[in-house]
TrEMBL record:
Pfam (any one): PRAI
Catalytic activity as recorded in UniProt: N-(5-phospho-beta-D-ribosyl)anthranilate = 1-(2-carboxyphenylamino)-1-deoxy-D-ribulose 5-phosphate
Pathway annotation: Amino-acid biosynthesis; L-tryptophan biosynthesis; L-tryptophan from chorismate: step 3/5
Protein family (similarity comment): Belongs to the TrpF family.
GO molecular function: phosphoribosylanthranilate isomerase activity
Biological classification of the source: Bacteria, Pseudomonadati, Gemmatimonadota, Gemmatimonadia, Gemmatimonadales
Entry protein name: N-(5'-phosphoribosyl)anthranilate isomerase
Gene3D superfamilies: Aldolase class I
Record bears the keyword rRNA-binding: no
């Protein structure tokens, strides 16, 4: 095993209490979900900006957006004050360079790839050179109402491992992770980091005990 520490990102932050709980547990990054076609955790941008302003460095703040055009995404990022934008849907190839031009230099780009089948490997490797990291999730953007994350489902980790082995940028793993399976996931995929939402919640709220067990398992 590598001695490089696997990073932990907790998504779907919804309150100051959740932010404090996650930071106290020692997470590396927090995810804030803006408006989505489906899935858990979206909150108003004004609340995202308020919560992000309370987060001390070096904890990173990710804005999850389903927007696909660069001006809309850039405006969201500026309003929310985050340092990472997580693109949960596919964007036009030209959008990456446009985002780089529109956003402050400190803002990093993370492209979500929903691992559905072997074609997802090619999709990830095509996006990777244009972003700072890739995040592998278990949604399905091919549905009439797109699933863009927060499904609580595990996908085929062998496909994720193939992406990790070939990606020129760091890869985060998401999708159905919890304390009971995250160690196996890390061994199987060897991601740079893991991302969790429902796996550390009880009745929709961040559960400090579940989060601690998750981090210990990682």
């Amino acid at each position: 095993m590598s001695d490089v520490r696997t990073r932990v990102k907790v998504c779907c932050m919804s309150s100051a209490d959740e932010v404090r709980t996650a930071i106290s547990a020692g997470v590396d990054a927090l995810g804030f979900v803006s408006a989505m076609p489906s899935g858990p955790g979206p909150i108003d941008e004004a609340l995202i900006a308020e919560l992000v302003a309370s987060v001390p460095p070096p904890v990173s703040c990710f804005l999850l957006t389903c927007a696909t055009d660069a001006p809309t995404i850039a405006a969201q990022v500026v309003r929310c004050g985050v340092d990472v934008v997580q693109l949960v849907d596919a964007v036009p190839a030209a959008a990456y360079a446009e985002l780089r031009a529109l956003l402050p230099h400190r803002v990093r780009l993370v492209q979500v790839i929903h691992v559905v089948d072997a074609a997802s490997i090619d999709e990830a490797l095509a996006a990777a050179p244009h972003v700072d990291a890739v995040l592998l999730d278990s949604g399905n953007p091919r549905l009439a109402v797109k699933e863009l994350g927060g499904t609580g489902r595990v996908h085929d980790w062998s496909l994720s491992r193939a992406i990790v082995e070939r990606s020129p940028v760091p890869v985060f793993l998401a999708g159905g992770l919890r304390a009971e399976n995250v160690a196996e996931a890390v061994r199987a995929v060897r991601p740079f980091g893991v991302d969790v939402c429902s796996g550390v919640r009880t009745d929709g709220r961040l559960d400090a005990g579940k989060l601690r067990r998750f981090i210990d398992a990682v």
